[in-house]
Amino acid sequence: MTGLTTVTATAPGPRAVPRHGEGSGAPPRWRTPLLFCGPFAVLFLAMYVAPIVYAAVSSLFAVRRSGLGLAPPVKVFDPLGNYVQALGDKAFVASLGRVALFGVVQVPVMLVLALGLALLIDSRSARGKGLFRLAGFLPYAVPGVSAALVWSFMYSPQSSPVNHLLRPLGLGIPFFDDGTVLWSVANIVTWSWTGYNMIIIYAALQSIPAEVLEAARMDGASALRIAWNIKIPAVRGAIVLTAVFSIIGSAQLFNEPTVLQPISGGAVPSTFTPIMSAQAAVAAGNYPYAAAQSVILAVLVGAVSLAFFTLTGRRAKA
Amino acid sequence: MKKPMTRTVTMTGALALGLVLAGCSDTGSSATGATGGGGKATVTFWGWAPGYEDAVKAFNDGHPDIQVTYQQVQPGAKGGYQKLLNAVQAGNAPCLAQLGYETLPSFAAQGALQDVARYATAAKDEFQQAAWKAVSLGDAVYGAPVDTGPMALFYNKELFDSLGLKPPATWEEYRTAAEKIHASDPDRYISSPYMDYDYAGLAWQAGAGWFGVDGDSWKVTLNSEANKKVADYWQGLIGKGLISGAPMYDQAWYGGLGDGGIATVVGAVWQAGVIKSGAKDGSGKWAVAPMPQWSAGEAKAGNAGGSSTAVLKGCKTPEAAWKFAHWMSTDRDAYGTLVDKAALYPAAKALLDLPQLTADDPYFGGQKIYKVFAEESAKVDTGWTWGPIMTKTTADLNDGLGRAWAGKGTITDALRAAQEKTVAELNGQGLKVSG
């Protein structure tokens, strides 16, 4: 949803707004924008900034109990303790590596698919655009957990219709082998999100001026050439945006592996992704340790997103 | 395009704000459970067992001075406990919660429970000793025991009869039955894998404790010799391919229970309710026998589950909370409904002669199944102790158990890993661990 707003909002430009403000009397000048920003600012501070600060602060404390631990635990200020523990926690570090690998492979595959679909729907010869647009977007409308449940049925060794069909041929896909389970998860994520990204890119394609495309066509450029030399460069911003969303999404992987966990035969451990690892720490009653893991994840995601923006931005200027 | 978008955004903002405010006011009233204006004590109760809602309604009808509000949450292991702990952490927890005996010490260790010994101690002798022990630590009492989970062997009698098998009296015979069943059809298995607390019940029967208390330090014994014996036995069955891959409580499991693909469930009394409602095709085929023994002639049973109605920290009306909890565990009519709906087996001694517990059950071929469980109940060792971070311990254990049952790694490895991780976490939090 955020993606749609951002993309469309950038197109028309905010030129009309200040002139409107100048026309009326003095007080509304600051009151109106404040009124409009107020709800956002309040929610942003209360629902976003405050929890982050709370988590960051609580990650600086260590849970300390004594004896049998039947008295309530006390929190001791130990600013680095949880971070040292997290970075030495093999399961947590492995989970970071796992989502990194996931992002490196799944994000490009999904975005190439999304871009391809968007270009196909956008092409002049496409029929039934509305139908395909809807069909592509539909998986996104299925809540993540429900989608994962349906896919778990498709993967489960007991019920998989795919393997049932392959069995007479002596074949079978090991969805829950240690080496393949990450890609089983990637498949679900790709299925769910390709259409969403397709819509963002498709919306950006709509803003390409018709005369540019027409000029190219009159110069004799083929449809492929137009797509490569005009359309793709024109929607570059949308692609970067979807890429950043997808990187963040990969880092926050949780629903799909959690749903698959009980049927995965141990291939999805309780610390499969960083967020699952933080959840496991909460389960042990160690909230500060979970907070530290979350902070590390957030910092890493922020750094990767920033690096990605800088990299793609620099290349655009060059 | 722009205008409608702005409007949507503001509307969403307003809506969200409204929700936030509603959320605040909601927690304000329900959480603390303060005495209302009319002198009526209010108690909020979170649970998930079928039938609890009926009990609450019956209680409210008969007690004009106390108003209990029931809220259904996800079953504990599926997120309910997490939600409860988060609520306690946030200071807006309900007064009462359904809490399994295995989780109660972990909650107590996090300071999430409230001692109601003042009101509760007088009721001590009304409950089975083991159940009372499960809700009290030292002199503190944290709630009322509701049910216990004595285990027995659920078996597909129709299948056993057709193969000329009798319910196995020993684990040795159980293995032989497993081989015969699998030989009769490669899609038939003796059982599904057992995870966390279902597996704990198997260890419990063998006297293979997981935790112990030694003075003021914990003993962690997940990888003891006794536990290895149990692990090796089931490992043997896995090695021979005699265990189904269908996880318990999965659709594939219910399917197998119905069509003979899974021939037995070694499970607690409440599994009767799970099996009946989940595997309707199995009606008339199933029966219940005592748990197989490690040596012929022994009489030992395990326990899996059993829960309490616990009083959470921050409850402003602990006396009213206790009154309801005690009532639900001891009222004959209310408990009768719980037996019918959830196959609960009462922790209160006076309820053991409920008519519901002596009835024939057509699902189990007209067998009086609670008679078996009453006998099993007497064979349960009352010395079992749960650890202080069970959610974490069982999550780690399940990581390894899942692999072991799938033929990767062994159950012994799973127990060893869970042992190491549990000890590390306990040490990390500053708890004493010995041995």
TrEMBL record, chain A:
<keyword id="KW-1003">Cell membrane</keyword>
<keyword id="KW-0762">Sugar transport</keyword>
<keyword id="KW-0813">Transport</keyword>
<protein>
    <submittedName>
        <fullName>Multiple sugar transport system permease protein</fullName>
    </submittedName>
</protein>
<keyword id="KW-0812">Transmembrane</keyword>
<feature type="transmembrane region" description="Helical">
    <location>
        <begin position="290"/>
        <end position="311"/>
    </location>
</feature>
<feature type="transmembrane region" description="Helical">
    <location>
        <begin position="132"/>
        <end position="154"/>
    </location>
</feature>
<comment type="similarity">
    <text>Belongs to the binding-protein-dependent transport system permease family.</text>
</comment>
<dbReference type="GO" id="GO:0055085">
    <property type="term" value="P:transmembrane transport"/>
</dbReference>
<feature type="transmembrane region" description="Helical">
    <location>
        <begin position="34"/>
        <end position="57"/>
    </location>
</feature>
<keyword id="KW-1133">Transmembrane helix</keyword>
<feature type="transmembrane region" description="Helical">
    <location>
        <begin position="99"/>
        <end position="120"/>
    </location>
</feature>
<dbReference type="Pfam" id="PF00528">
    <property type="entry name" value="BPD_transp_1"/>
</dbReference>
<feature type="region of interest" description="Disordered">
    <location>
        <begin position="1"/>
        <end position="25"/>
    </location>
</feature>
<feature type="transmembrane region" description="Helical">
    <location>
        <begin position="181"/>
        <end position="205"/>
    </location>
</feature>
<feature type="transmembrane region" description="Helical">
    <location>
        <begin position="226"/>
        <end position="248"/>
    </location>
</feature>
<dbReference type="InterPro" id="IPR035906">
    <property type="entry name" value="MetI-like_sf"/>
</dbReference>
<dbReference type="GO" id="GO:0005886">
    <property type="term" value="C:plasma membrane"/>
</dbReference>
<feature type="domain" description="ABC transmembrane type-1">
    <location>
        <begin position="96"/>
        <end position="308"/>
    </location>
</feature>
<keyword id="KW-0472">Membrane</keyword>
<dbReference type="InterPro" id="IPR000515">
    <property type="entry name" value="MetI-like"/>
</dbReference>
<dbReference type="InterPro" id="IPR051393">
    <property type="entry name" value="ABC_transporter_permease"/>
</dbReference>
UniProtKB/TrEMBL annotation, chain B:
<keyword id="KW-0762">Sugar transport</keyword>
<protein>
    <submittedName>
        <fullName>Multiple sugar transport system substrate-binding protein</fullName>
    </submittedName>
</protein>
<dbReference type="InterPro" id="IPR006059">
    <property type="entry name" value="SBP"/>
</dbReference>
<keyword id="KW-0732">Signal</keyword>
<keyword id="KW-0813">Transport</keyword>
<feature type="signal peptide">
    <location>
        <begin position="1"/>
        <end position="22"/>
    </location>
</feature>
<dbReference type="Pfam" id="PF01547">
    <property type="entry name" value="SBP_bac_1"/>
</dbReference>
<dbReference type="InterPro" id="IPR050490">
    <property type="entry name" value="Bact_solute-bd_prot1"/>
</dbReference>
<keyword id="KW-0472">Membrane</keyword>
<keyword id="KW-0449">Lipoprotein</keyword>
<keyword id="KW-0564">Palmitate</keyword>
<keyword id="KW-1003">Cell membrane</keyword>
